[in-house]
DNA sequence: CATAGTAGTATCCTGTTGTATACTGCAATT
DNA sequence: AATTGCAGTATACAACAGGATACTACTATG
């Protein structure tokens, strides 16, 4: 149960650092958006198709914010009509560890949930820890 | 500019995995809350004091959600009056990589912003990439 | 000629998140 | 005897994120 961070001071400092990080990456879309750009530049509608359920308004806003934080660069080509691409910057590479950790957790957590649901007849800890309704809590689970 | 994930398929799958992960960890408080519990069990008011600005209503809700996802366990001691502690579960360890990555990024990003603000007289890329108002964008920066 | 695609913007609306304030009932402290 | 701390709940409200739908002006395709 012991972790690397265990003094009161490093712990408080970590809370601040995490808060800073989340301030920049918050919301439902920023990280998925960055991931969807990892295999090269994409155009607006292309992204919208890939990130099922994102509306143009929200996508537009998220892209603007990522641009301001220098994770994404917007390139306009003066074709007729204009075409616009979005691509990741060099700086965005500093997010790779976060993305990889989230990805690994997401994958493992989904498997855990599926396993849980299969053996859901066993309720030994039901009183202390209510059996979560995982099926409703993860959206896709195809 | 090449990363590990670069085929269309692995990229789409990663988006799903990230979405799953964020589904469980979303919001402003869950990760900071978990971090604040890394140096041992804490009581309700103790947490509230440590996480400046969280209201009891929100804290209560966040703790309930973390409990349902089995990251936190709530222990009630029948002292008079009852005392309650919250502590991290074994399973919560699977979040350590995420937390460490976010922490490292948060720390480095804050330093980058401070550096940017010092040399803010240089505006060579102002037209393409508006100089972000970092001072307003990070909340603490004491 | 109608449809589809381009890169978004404009409005309106809902739902969650967060804030503010007050309150509980009991015990220990001042 | 009054205040403080405990672990929250209750109520009302404000703010913001996000969703639904429609629309622009232009071009290419069927």
TrEMBL record, chains A, B:
Keyword Transferase carried by entry: no
Any Pfam family the entry gives: HxlR
Record-given protein name: Helix-turn-helix transcriptional regulator
UniProt keyword list: DNA-binding, Transcription, Transcription regulation
InterPro entries: HTH_HxlR, WH-like_DNA-bd_sf, WH_DNA-bd_sf
Superkingdom classification of source: Bacteria
GO terms of molecular function: DNA binding
Keyword Transmembrane helix (UniProt): no
Transmembrane feature ranges: none
Domain spans labelled HTH hxlR-type: 11-114
């Amino acid at each position: 149960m012991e972790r690397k961070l265990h003094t009161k001071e490093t712990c408080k400092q970590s809370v601040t650092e995490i808060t800073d990080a989340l301030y920049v990456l918050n919301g439902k879309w920023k990280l998925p958006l960055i991931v969807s750009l990892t295999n090269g530049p994409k155009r607006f509608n292309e992204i919208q198709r890939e990130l099922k359920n994102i509306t143009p308004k929200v996508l537009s806003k998220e892209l603007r914010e990522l641009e301001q934080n220098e994770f994404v660069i917007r390139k306009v080509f003066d074709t007729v009509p204009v075409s616009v691409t979005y691509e990741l910057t060099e700086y965005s590479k500093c997010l790779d560890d976060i993305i990889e950790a989230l990805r690994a957790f997401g994958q493992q957590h989904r498997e855990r949930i599926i396993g849980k649901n299969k053996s859901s007849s066993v309720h030994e800890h039901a009183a202390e820890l209510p059996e979560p309704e995982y099926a409703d809590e993860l959206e896709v689970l195809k």
